[in-house]
Amino acid sequence: MNNDLNSIKTNFVQSLEKVKSEKDLEALRVNYLGKKGEITQIMQNIKNLPKEEKPIVGKEANQLRSFIDSELKEARNKLEQDRINSNLEKEKIDVTLPGKDQNVGGLHPLNKVINELEDIFLGMGFTIEDGPEIEWTKYNFDYLNMPPEHSSRDLSESFYYSTDEGKEIVLRTQTSPVQIRVLQKKGVPLRIVSPGRVFRADDIDATHSPVFHQIEGLVVDKNITMGDLKGTLELFAKKLFGEDIKTRFRPHQFYFTEPSAEMDVSCFNCGGKGCNVCGGTGWIEMLGCGMVHPNVLEAVGIDSSEYSGFAFGAGLDRIAMLKYGINDLRLLFENDIRFLKQFA
Predict the structure, then answer these.
(1) pLDDT tens digit string along 147-168?
(2) pTM above 0.70, yes or no
(3) CATH class of 109-343
(4) pLDDT per position as a tens digit, 177-234
């Protein structure tokens, strides 16, 4: 039996020297220490030995099993270390090589404009408000003094969601409903701007899109006048386009305001002399504005004999186009990296 143990040890050592992988090592372990392995067979046959040989053979068999187990663990650790060293060698980084260029993103031009406008109005004491893009028609039209026959209510102009009771839900066509909601919730005095996405069935050319962005402002308090409106918007234009910019106000009609006006700014490209940007007029149409119509105030429970206010609205996409010299509105929505990376 002792000769058998010596032979097993010799064969194990020779086999261990030939192991090249963890798979080979596991096969060797099973061959010697598995349920049907050679050491296991020796241990099971000890019961058949003479009484005086059992403790001697049992001791030597246990010593051999411990030896084999220890050698297997050492071999496994060596294989693992060899694998790690091999990976490190393959993955070694040459720190003297030039680094790879990193693609750094940037804000979308619309987001840049929104952030800039919000900073301007926050500096003038306004707060930023938001509201739902899917709106009840009473907020989008009725509370804003829009008559039933107004063209913006037409199915060809707005995106409706029809209910059993008729046209009650619409994708908002302006951010003015936010102003109504905030007036109802917070009351007066109030000084807010509401930037956001709006929707109209309009994509006739490169300056129109069924999805676009607006920023609208509302101020309501006692003794608000047209002079407050003009002073606020003139300061806004100078902050946005520079101190040399000039403004002018032209009469217009909006149902939300009375009196109403369109505000133009002097062309920042030619300084008002006339060029292709301003169509040779020296002026660029900027936004619509006016004094809040008394009917709008009364609709939300505000006494129009005690309070007055002004409102204005501008297309954010148009401002971005003017500010960055973009000639096609659709470029803002196409996600073309060649276009967008110019603003990073």
Answers:
(1) 888 777 777 778 888 665 556 8
(2) no
(3) alpha beta
(4) 999 999 999 999 999 999 999 998 876 555 567 888 999 999 999 999 999 999 999 9
Residues in the chain: 344
Domain boundaries, the chain: 2-90, 109-343
